Amino acid sequence: MKTLQKTLLALATGSLLAVSAQAAVGYGNGYTGQPYAGVKVGQFDLDVDGADDPTAYGVYGGYNFDPNFGIEAEYVGSDDADYRGGNIDAKTYGAYGTYRYAFPNTGLYAKGKLGVAKTEVEGDFVSGVNRVSFSEDDTNIAGGVGLGYSVNPDFSVEAEYDMLGSDADLMTVGAQLKF
């Protein structure tokens, strides 16, 4: 595992453990912080000519410090998609600060996130009689926007569009359980 991956995973794990330990701490405004975990599925939009867009699957977790501000970490990987007689796949690791705006009396909320993400794209293709392999990774400032619906105080569904840098975007729908 490369150093940046280890750093991102350590930061995400440490942050989630720290905020989980504070889950019962009140902030003086009647709100107690709330950790959450979720799953998502969607599609990568890769900037690779001739490649099909791979289906994405991911997990994420975070912590809302108050009803509006929080942190989130995620991992999203993909299946293999067709690419010039071979295949291509992608994965991304991200850590974000989040902001949520709840629309009054509806259960709907808008979500924005900004942070850093590492995206890795690997594949192979046929060029003449040779099979050519490639691997690219890029770490960038990343962000996303989404719309969610709180089914009840402990369960939400979300749709998101994430911009992961110059080579990839990600569109997902997901569900999260709040603790």
From TrEMBL:
Pfam families: OMP_b-brl. Residues 11-163 form the Outer membrane protein beta-barrel domain. Residues 1-23 form the signal peptide. Gene3D superfamilies: 2.40.160.20. Keywords: Signal. The keyword ATP-binding does not apply. InterPro entries: Beta-barrel_OMP, OMP/PagP_B-barrel. The keyword Signal applies. This is Outer membrane protein beta-barrel domain-containing protein. It comes from Psychrobacter aquaticus CMS 56. The lineage of its organism: Bacteria, Pseudomonadati, Pseudomonadota, Gammaproteobacteria, Moraxellales.
